[in-house]
Specification:
By secondary structure, the chain is an alpha/beta fold. Helix content is 30%, strand content 22%. The strands form 4 sheets. A 7-stranded mixed β-sheet has the order 9-8-7-10-11-15-14. It has a 4-stranded mixed β-sheet with strand order 1-2-4-5. A two-stranded parallel ribbon has the order 3-6. The radius of gyration is 19 Å and the shape is globular. The two termini are 28 Å apart. The chain binds S-adenosylmethionine. S-adenosylmethionine (SAM) binds next to loops.
Length: 318
């Protein structure tokens, strides 16, 4: 699919320049990119027969569809894409238990999922594309994932070279590139991104700009409990993460959305985080939720801040 027909109102000239630069950058043989590109190239001739995107584990291929040597190679390539943050996946009967049980987040969104049929959808910070695959049964016309990290980009490319879904694509772009897409998307997902932004208000405005009139955004953010419309601004790290800037209460995020121009702003879920949803696994062997929380007081982060909740909003652009 070409971007002229999908995004007729986009700044296609500027977009092409950005994408060409990104491709030249990622095409370099240095910077460790080969570590992801070569494994991708070594398996990208393999096509899966059976796919199931309706189950908790995104399922692509069965073991008997490939020969034993190819199966070993797929396992090796998948181990090379560690750490797996988002999942679960089942690839040619290889179970990939990622750090995050992303199906729990998807199941919270499902009851309010906008109609995706024939829609143009964006998934901002899509990581390895777990949610993009879960969107497939809802028959979107096209889903563009924006993901600036090369490891996640090649993980998605590898998964989708097996799955062969031509209406899913990831570009090495970030939320800051949304101004290139004015009035372009029917539905935007912005999950787990806002608290990583130094200017969440600018990001919300960019989301608003990129939506078509009548379009819908689904926002999910880390949050602190409380009724006041305030945001925590950590001194250095929050739950050990240095790249966390503003952690709002639900009412604060509600106000941000309203004041950035969104209508029908509706909170549809809020829940505390837990080690049931985010944990160390065989496919993500580094620190995880339990290491970020004060062992003596599970309602506090290791830094003494309120432990994280997650909050979900749906809002529209009139
Ligand atoms: C906390 S994860 C959330 C992933 C997924 N959306 C989810 O909710 O499970 C943040 C993701 O945003 C990506 N990211 C980093 N910088 C970004 C940017 N400038 N714009 C969009 N995404 C970005 C990261 O690589 C990572 O995949």
């Amino acid at each position: 699919m070409d971007y002229h027909s999908i995004f007729p109102t986009a700044d296609l000239k500027a977009l092409r320049l950005v994408l060409e630069k990104k491709q030249a950058w990622v095409g370099q043989s240095k910077k460790g990119f080969l570590r992801y590109r070569l494994p991708f190239e070594s398996v990208h001739h393999i096509r899966a027969g059976h796919c199931d995107f309706n189950s908790d584990a995104v399922t692509i291929g069965r073991k008997e569809e490939v020969d034993p040597a190819e199966h070993s190679r797929i396992l090796e390539v998948m181990r090379g894409f560690m750490p797996w943050r988002k999942g679960p996946f089942r690839l040619f009967d290889i179970d990939i238990d990622a750090e995050w049980r992303s199906e729990l987040k998807w199941n919270r969104i499902l009851p309010v999922l906008p109609d995706l049929t024939d829609r143009i959808v964006g998934d901002i910070g899509c990581n390895n594309g777990y949610y993009m695959f879960r969107m497939v049964p809802h028959r979107p016309k096209f889903v563009l994932g924006l993901e600036p990290y090369v490891q996640h980009y090649y993980t998605f490319k590898t998964l989708n070279s097996f799955a062969g879904r031509e209406n899913l694509r990831v570009e090495l772009l970030g939320i800051e590139h949304l101004p290139l897409f004015p009035d372009c998307f029917d539905v935007l997902f912005c999950l787990g991104i806002l608290y990583h932004r130094q200017s969440p208000i600018d990001s919300l405005r960019d989301l608003w700009t990129a939506l078509k009139p009548g379009g819908t955004v689904i926002i999910e953010s880390q949050a602190i409990p409380g009724h006041e419309p305030i945001a925590l601004f950590p001194e250095k790290t929050y739950a050990k993460v240095p790249g966390t800037w503003f952690v709002p209460t639900a009412s604060c995020l509600h106000n941000w959305l309203s004041r950035c121009g969104f209508s029908s702003v509706r909170q549809f879920c809020m829940h505390p985080m837990s080690n049931r949803e985010q944990r160390k696994t065989e496919w993500m062997v580094f620190e995880s939720y339990d290491d970020f929380i004060d062992a003596a007081d599970p309602e506090r982060t290791i830094e003494g801040y309120p432990a994280p909740w997650r909050v979900f909003f749906k809002a529209t652009k009139e």
